[in-house]
């Protein structure tokens, strides 16, 4: 039979593990938000340069880069 101290220690250990997991999840969420901001800014600048004529869509690979960046942003937002 477990003593009360053993039960309290088990509960304390579980609480510490849960706190750790929550902290890691929050860090990951913050990182994802930062990545989304970076992608949005980079894609916005790329589109601005495209509209200004600084970038030309001369090949399918140029369009592919744009589409992949957009898909990456959408995937991160899920």
* Largest sheet descriptor: none
What number is the mean pLDDT? 80
Category from helices, strands and their pairing: mainly alpha
Rounded to an integer in angstroms, the radius of gyration calculated over CA atoms is 23 Å
Number of distinct helices: 2
Number of strands: 0
- Percent of residues in β-strands: under 5%
Q: Which blocks of ≥5 consecutive residues have pLDDT under 50? A: none
H/E topology pattern: HH
Helix content: over 70%
Shape call: rod-shaped
Distance between the termini: 47 Å
Describe this structure in words.
It contains two helices and no strands. The protein is mainly α. Helix 1 packs antiparallel against helix 2 (60-77). The model has no long low-confidence stretch (mean pLDDT 80).
Walk me through the topology.
Layout: H1 4-51, H2 60-77
Helix pairs in contact: 1-2
Summarize the structure.
This protein has 78 residues and is mainly α. Helix content is 85%, strand content 0%. It contains two helices and no strands.
